[in-house]
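Exercise 7b. Backbone tokens:
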């Protein structure tokens, strides 16, 4: 007998009308506006959508439960539903109405100036008058770029022929009166040098289909826009049948190939590095993959029963490692893995967060074990199983609402005290949603508190290569007066030089914070604590904190 399980689906329908006349608007795309889409999140053209019929009506089928706010952001129209809609299984919401307003379109082609070849990997980013990103689009194979749904007004267009090179000079356009159609944008020819090499195994045979990922770590000219673009975009290639690869149009400087991945093979023992001169290419880079070994870690309690809820941290001395979550049988296996000395540290079930600075396990690197080529190293970790605890509050029936608020406040305060006492992870210490720093409108800064505290700045779309692993965090700062004031200073280009460079390069940065009002630690003490924990985990301080703890507002 065949049993088929059908999931109940939810239908969301509505109608799009012109705000001024009330007439239905036909053949326009409508996106669902899921919770993470209520603000701009990349490109409206890539979100799920349906098109309206002749009567302006639309229907989304098979949506999951949640809150939605349908919107139109395309072509010559822009608008959204006046209120969000909560979808619940088993209920049919009333049709929504979207009033749309006339909008502007931008269409053009992006070509190389001399060769007239299209920029097939190019794209455009649109900034409003406040410097916030409002939309972006990718070029097609002919270099054509189209986007719409822009409200009338002034904009700056940032065009880039490929993601690995500097953008063209910003182009100011005024879309108050009419669309921008039939534009022709020209980019200069790419310059730079090339790195050519091979990925081989321990016997010198070429390794096909190996991914080679590099990063410009030491540019010859840090002020060169092409060097800044290359540092942000990275350099990568895939080897051919003989293991050969080529990476072109690179600015001179020092490169590190932090990511070498070939199916079924170990990564290099040491991170490959090469210096690319300004007057010639590098043609003889050889990256050797060693014979692999394997590591098996078993976690059990004193009776020999596996602990499936435990997690372990595995670090290779000299660089590399990962955090591994619980396995159903309490056994982890890294196969293949790079030969070397590994440190394995157990995070016991029932203990939340990382060890605090006063915890005896703070400086404990864990158990060491050597992995040799062609063999499986086995390690067994034994720890005590912890009982689960349920805590609650008994209250009088007449004080339910007041007691509920008091209980929630007490729970939050207790959770914050535990985080501070136990040195909880960054995600529990910084207990507010992230905001985008580099695309931040001044009004959004009001979300940041005008109170003292600490804050973390992280890369939004990539991670940085530190000596003992990769992390998106690049800076910890603090303020003794107002976090909002410090973020506004960073946003305007004042303050830390690392953040200033990333903001100037238009890279998206995430920010989160923690107020210290009423806390037992001062902003500086918390900042120093985070820096110590980061250095212990990743082998160095964040990019923007190389001088250590600050003395004033940073």
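Sequence design result:
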């Amino acid at each position: 007998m065949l049993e088929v399980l059908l999931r109940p689906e939810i239908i969301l329908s509505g109608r799009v009308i012109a705000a001024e006349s009330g007439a239905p608007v036909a053949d326009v795309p409508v996106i669902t506006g899921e919770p993470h889409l209520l603000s701009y999140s990349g490109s409206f053209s890539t979100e799920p959508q349906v098109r309206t019929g002749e009567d302006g009506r639309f229907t989304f089928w098979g949506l999951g439960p949640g809150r939605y706010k349908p919107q139109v952001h395309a072509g010559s129209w822009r608008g959204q539903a006046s209120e969000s809609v909560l979808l619940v299984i088993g209920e049919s919401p009333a049709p929504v109405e979207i009033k749309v307003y006339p909008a502007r379109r931008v269409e053009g082609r992006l070509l190389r100036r001399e060769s007239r070849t299209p920029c097939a990997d190019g794209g455009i980013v649109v900034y409003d008058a406040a410097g916030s990103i409002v939309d972006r689009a990718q070029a097609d194979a002919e270099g054509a770029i189209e986007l719409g749904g822009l409200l009338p007004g002034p904009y700056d267009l940032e065009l880039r022929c490929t993601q690995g090179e500097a953008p063209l000079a910003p182009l100011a356009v005024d879309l108050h009166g009419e669309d921008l159609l039939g534009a022709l944008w020209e980019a200069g020819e790419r310059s730079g040098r090339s790195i050519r090499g091979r990925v081989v195994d321990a016997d010198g045979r070429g390794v096909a289909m190996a991914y080679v990922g590099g990063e410009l770590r030491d540019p010859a000219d840090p002020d060169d826009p092409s060097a800044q673009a290359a540092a942000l975009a990275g350099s990568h290639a895939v080897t051919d049948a003989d293991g050969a690869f080529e990476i072109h149009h690179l600015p001179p400087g020092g490169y590190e190939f932090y990511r070498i991945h070939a199916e079924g093979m170990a990564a290099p023992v040491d991170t490959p590095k090469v210096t690319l001169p300004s007057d010639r290419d590098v043609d003889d880079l050889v990256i050797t993959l060693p014979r692999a070994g394997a590591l098996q870690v078993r976690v059990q309690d004193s009776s020999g029963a596996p602990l499936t809820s435990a997690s372990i941290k595995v670090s290779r001395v000299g660089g590399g490692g990962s955090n591994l979550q619980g396995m159903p049988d309490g056994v982890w296996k890294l196969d293949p893995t790079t030969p070397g000395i590994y440190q394995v540290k157990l995070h016991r079930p029932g203990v939340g967060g990382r060890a605090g600075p006063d915890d005896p396990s703070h400086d404990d690197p864990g158990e060491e074990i050597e992995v040799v080529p062609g063999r499986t190293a086995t390690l067994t970790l034994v720890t005590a199983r912890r009982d689960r605890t349920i805590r609650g509050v008994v209250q009088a029936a007449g004080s339910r609402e007041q007691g509920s608020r008091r209980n929630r406040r007490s729970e939050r305060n207790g959770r914050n005290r535990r985080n501070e006492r136990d040195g909880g992870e960054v995600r529990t210490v910084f207990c507010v949603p992230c905001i985008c720093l580099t695309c931040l409108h001044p009004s959004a800064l009001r979300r940041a508190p005008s109170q003292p505290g600490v804050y973390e700045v992280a890369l939004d779309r990539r991670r940085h290569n530190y000596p003992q692993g990769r992390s998106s965090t690049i800076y910890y700062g603090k303020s003794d007066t107002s976090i909002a004031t410090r973020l506004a200073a960073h946003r305007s280009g004042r303050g830390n030089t690392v953040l200033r460079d990333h903001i100037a390069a238009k890279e998206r940065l995430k920010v989160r914070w923690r107020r210290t009002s009423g806390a037992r630690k001062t902003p500086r003490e918390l900042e120093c604590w985070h820096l110590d924990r980061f250095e212990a985990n990743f082998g160095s301080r964040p990019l923007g904190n190389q001088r250590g703890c600050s003395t004033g507002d940073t």
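Instructor comment: The chain has five domains: 10-102, 104-187, 193-288, 293-382, 410-545. Helices lie at 225-233, 400-422, 426-429, 483-491, 497-504, 523-538.
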